Amino acid sequence: MRDLKLQIQRDVNRRDMHDNIKLGRGGIREVEFIAQVFQLIRGGRDASLQIRPTLKVLSLLQGKGLLPIQAVHELQQAYIFLRNLEHRLQYLEDSQTQDLPASEESQRRIAKGMNFADWPAFLAVLDQHRSLVQQHFEQVFNDAKSNQADKSEEHTQSPAVALWRGLLEGEEAVNAMAQLAMSSRKILCASS
């Protein structure tokens, strides 16, 4: 998963894919990764997490107390919004695209297809969803140890964010996964 995300992130950075609602910041992939990281860490011991649909995984995480109700609600709403937008983009372009359109006519059609009066009204809601996804993504992967004395970017990030961004490899990555598993066990014990 780490290698795939690293490859995607390099591609996003190389091609300036801010307007890509799937791979860009706050996009579909970040919602999916939030669900998948819990499955990766806990799915071996909790078979109920070994399911596919992202929305069902998020509901299950809420039911198990692993994600707050508001976070799950916001992530689900953003995921539905982004998926609906993805389908409309693909209908508009008649291709497998996740990029926001550049032409005014296409923007008008997407806004109308998403039930908004105009492009700016649509963009405001899209930006809000993407901002919340990015916020929840960072929150899920935030770690108190990220403010250590070593201030290099690679070492100040939480282990999960470093994994996500492909900054860790080999034994360092395995140790970070183990640290995440221990942290999540502590959180569960404390909330019990």
What does this protein look like?
This protein has a domain at 18-140: Four Helix Bundle (Hemerythrin (Met), subunit A), CATH 1.20.120. Helices cover 67% and strands 0% of the residues. The chain has nine helices and no strands. The two termini are 30 Å apart. The model is unreliable at 143-156 (pLDDT under 50).
Name of the top-level CATH class of the domain at 18-140: Mainly Alpha
Head-to-tail CA distance between termini: 30 Å
Question: What would you report as the Rg, rounded to the nearest angstrom?
Answer: 18 Å
Order of helices and strands: HHHHHHHHH
In the predicted model, the low-confidence regions spanning at least 5 consecutive residues are: 143-156
User: So, CATH architecture of the domain at 18-140?
Assistant: Up-down Bundle
* Average pLDDT figure: 81
- The number of E-state strands comes to 0
Features of the shown structure:
192 residues; 67% helix; globular; mainly alpha; single chain; Four Helix Bundle (Hemerythrin (Met), subunit A)
SSE topology sketch:
Elements (H helix, E strand, L loop, with lengths): L1 H14 L12 H15 L11 H10 L5 H25 L10 H10 L5 H22 L12 H4 L2 H6 L5 H22 L1
Short précis:
By secondary structure, the chain is mainly α.
